[in-house]
């Protein structure tokens, strides 16, 4: 979707402001928000693509006005309610009022090291051969889906070159919406800065994205 | 709560969420209470997650990868071919490091990593991302004005240096291998790793020289 998260090339956000000796967290609640988000992810009720979609569904003014862990927390609230683990009233009150859904697993302290070390690999074998090869010129499709996609707006309807075939991976545009993993080949596609940004672009700039096969068409 | 407002309030990209801090403290506390009452989370697991990312998983992992790549051509080749396996051989695996790719700076080309869509970042080798990496200013401009962004990190590259920006739009996580600095011959891997900052592995800095690292 063309949500507030799709920031590449937008203007007006001011300079980047690196902090000297920046801490990992700026408040105690940020630590808890990280841990709650990872713990709820361990339920196995939703996947990373649905999580990302929940975040990009936050209304633009709220998204752009929120810190990152605030965005995460809003998305977790939404997911807990959507999947029946908590009601809106419980989330408002901060107390349990009914049983709710029981998750496949609850992340206990002694499971944390193993869960973090395992991660969530999303490569999936495919029987079909990749449609494109290294060196092929491809055009990204021009589409504006209302659902989740990982093709940024700035890289739509642009001509680039396939630099690498990266393997086959879960397709987020389907997986975010419960339509299955439907793996596809993923390619690193390189664009000249001028192709993307036009007149005035830095002539020494190239930008690459990792694009699922259905985002691309042959030139 | 000792870290509240411990940062520089003049940083413009923070002021807008400072107002929410007290709200968010209450809100997240309520959420943790609710989920604990329902048996859905274990507060000790949250402690363990935070402890892991505060003390175990951080940029020193990535610096070891870079130092080994500088010291061992076979390892560097392995990194180019299969970064996931090469990095795993040093014990750095797991969440947000499941699929890794290493990109090497050269005298001609400088690499810069961003995720314009969210905050994809190689946790297994760099730990949790800094606030600026997740903030709109960096995510919006890294792809359109990388030289301007680099200047804000006090890094000015020659005009003839090509800039290659990698937008992390899929599940591959990138690690920049900076160029080995001059006058670092004879240094062992531990000393070399001290020359490698987190920013150098994102591409917003170069490796330190042995003089500037002192």
From TrEMBL, chain A:
Reaction catalysis annotation: an aliphatic primary amide = an aliphatic nitrile + H2O
Role description: NHase catalyzes the hydration of various nitrile compounds to the corresponding amides.
Recorded GO MF terms: nitrile hydratase activity; transition metal ion binding
Taxonomy of the source species: Bacteria, Pseudomonadati, Pseudomonadota, Alphaproteobacteria, Hyphomicrobiales
Gene: nthB
UniProtKB keywords: Lyase
EC number: 4.2.1.84
Gene3D superfamilies documented for this protein: 2.30.30.50, Nitrile hydratase, beta subunit
Protein name stated in the entry: Nitrile hydratase subunit beta
Domain Nitrile hydratase beta subunit: 121-217
The keyword Ligase appears for this protein: no
Native species: Rhizobium tropici
Homology family: Belongs to the nitrile hydratase subunit beta family.
Span of domain Nitrile hydratase beta subunit-like N-terminal: 1-106
Superkingdom of origin: Bacteria
UniProtKB/TrEMBL annotation, chain B:
Pfam entry (one): NHase_alpha
EC number: 4.2.1.84
Stretches for region Disordered: 1-21
Keyword vocabulary terms for this entry: Iron, Lyase, Metal-binding
Biased composition (Basic and acidic residues): 1-12
Coiled-coil annotated spans: none
Enzyme class per UniProt: lyase
InterPro entries, A to Z: CN_Hdrase_a/SCN_Hdrase_g_sf, CN_Hdrtase_a/SCN_Hdrlase_g, CN_Hdrtase_asu/SCN_Hdrlase_gsu, Nitrile_hydratase_asu
Signal peptide: none
GO molecular function ontology, one term from the record: transition metal ion binding
Source taxon at top rank: Bacteria
Binding site for Fe(3+): 115, 118-120
Reactions this protein catalyses: an aliphatic primary amide = an aliphatic nitrile + H2O
Nitrile hydratase alpha/Thiocyanate hydrolase gamma domain boundaries: 23-205
Family: Belongs to the nitrile hydratase subunit alpha family.
Protein name: nitrile hydratase
């Amino acid at each position: 979707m063309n949500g507030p998260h799709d920031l590449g090339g937008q203007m007006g956000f001011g300079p980047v402001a690196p902090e000297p000796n920046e801490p990992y967290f700026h408040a105690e609640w940020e630590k808890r928000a990280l841990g709650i988000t990872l713990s709820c992810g361990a339920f196995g009720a939703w996947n990373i693509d649905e999580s990302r979609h929940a975040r990009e569904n936050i209304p633009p003014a709220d998204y752009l006005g929120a810190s990152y862990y605030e965005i995460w927390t809003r998305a977790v609230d939404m997911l807990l309610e959507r999947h029946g683990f908590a009601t809106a009233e419980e989330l408002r009150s901060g107390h349990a009022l009914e049983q709710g859904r029981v998750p496949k697993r609850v992340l206990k302290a002694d499971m944390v090291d193993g869960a973090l070390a395992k991660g969530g690999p999303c490569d999936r074998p495919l029987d079909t051969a990749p449609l494109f090869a290294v060196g092929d010129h491809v055009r990204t499709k021009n589409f504006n889906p209302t659902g989740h996609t990982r093709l940024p707006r700035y890289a739509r309807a642009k001509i680039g070159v396939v630099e690498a075939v990266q393997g086959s991976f879960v397709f987020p545009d389907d997986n975010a919406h419960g339509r299955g993993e439907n793996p596809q080949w993923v390619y690193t596609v390189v664009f000249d800065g001028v192709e993307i940004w036009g007149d005035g672009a830095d002539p020494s700039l190239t930008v690459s994205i990792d694009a699922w096969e259905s985002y691309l068409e042959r030139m | 709560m000792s870290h509240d407002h411990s940062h520089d309030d003049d940083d413009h990209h923070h002021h807008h969420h400072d107002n929410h801090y007290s709200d968010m403290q209450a809100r997240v506390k309520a959420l943790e209470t609710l989920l604990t009452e329902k048996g859905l989370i274990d507060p000790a697991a949250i402690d363990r997650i935070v402890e892991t990312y505060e003390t175990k998983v951080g940029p020193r992992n990535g610096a070891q990868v870079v130092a080994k790549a500088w010291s061992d051509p076979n390892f560097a080749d392995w990194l180019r071919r299969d970064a996931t396996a090469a990095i795993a051989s040093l014990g750095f695996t797991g969440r947000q490091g499941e699929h890794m790719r290493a990109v090497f700076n050269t005298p001609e080309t400088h690499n810069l990593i961003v995720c314009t869509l969210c905050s994809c970042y190689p946790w297994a080798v760099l730990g949790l991302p800094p606030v600026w990496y997740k903030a709109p200013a960096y995510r919006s401009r890294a792809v359109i004005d990388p030289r301007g962004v680099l200047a804000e990190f006090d890094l000015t590259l020659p005009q003839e240096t090509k800039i290659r920006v990698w937008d992390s739009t899929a599940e591959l996580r990138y690690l920049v291998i900076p160029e080995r600095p001059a006058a670092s011959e004879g240094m062992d891997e531990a000393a070399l790793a001290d020359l490698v900052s987190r920013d150098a592995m994102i591409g917003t800095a170069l490796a330190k020289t042995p003089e500037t690292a002192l």
